[in-house]
Amino acid sequence: MDALSEAIAAIRLGTANAKRVKEHGAWGTRFPAYTGSGFHIVLDGEGWLLTHDSPPRQVRPGDVIVVPTGAEHGLSRSIRPLHELPDAQIGPSDPAPGPADFEYLCGGYRLAYGPVHHYFASLPGVIAISPDYDHDPQLHELTRLLATNTTPAPSAPSTPAQSGASATRSALFDLLLIHILRQWQARPSGPGPSPAAPHEPAPAPEWAHIADPAIAGVLHAVHADPRRPWTVGELSAYAGISRTAFTRRFTAQMGTAPRTYLTSQRLLHGARLLRATSAPLSMIAHQVGYSTEFAFGAAFRREFGISPGRFRATA
Questions:
Q1: Positive or negative, the Cα torsion across 6, 39, 277, 256?
Q2: How many C-beta atoms surround the C-beta of residue 190 within 10 A?
Q3: pLDDT score, position 204
């Protein structure tokens, strides 16, 4: 599984929701930080994207905003301080009737347990692009399907949710995130691999956003063989550099120490197995590198704040 696919699989441990929003007048909305990954698709009108660490950016119909780790941000008719905007209304709601000055789709995954995947954590807090729909007609169709699937039905007595709505929503979210991040990474000013030194393994394409080729090569190896009980010594040898230098460079690139990253990856793999299979805890513990289910359970509780059994029951 490549890095982006693994990140998408990990974020699907959360709850997928979407809504269509219409704004009128002197509108503005602040989206507080949360644990998860989200997006906005501008359908009509013009506005401004506001963040803490980037200049205001004007957004127009077709523009897509991705928030890989749920960073705080805002949308507004005019440029204003982010803290002055009213908080977004959380939960389902029908858009106001009639024409709107600005209309957009708001969706994403919210995680109740555990952190956002390291791949998303390595990306900027807020990504905004104007997609090339001519060269990616599938993305245009995805946005149309999302708009259709988040349009409320005419006023009527309450009815059960349409069959398969949750699965459809998740699949569309996944495809949208993949298409947008591919376009963002392929942009001329986007991240790219640095030339590899002769003694360092060349990075796999899916880790091209990691500037250090030695670390990119190690990440590829770890994710290609997640069951292997890697040690920091083995990883530094694979990179062809000393353990001290490897630990320093890995921490600088990933924002976390190698051992912490390895533990997180094993537990994340375990979380996916808990949700996707009915295998006993002892078997899952062995598959992710723990000798006993008790050791796995203790580590899982430290990472996710919940026992493996309760986590599986919340699926």
A1: positive
A2: 12
A3: 36
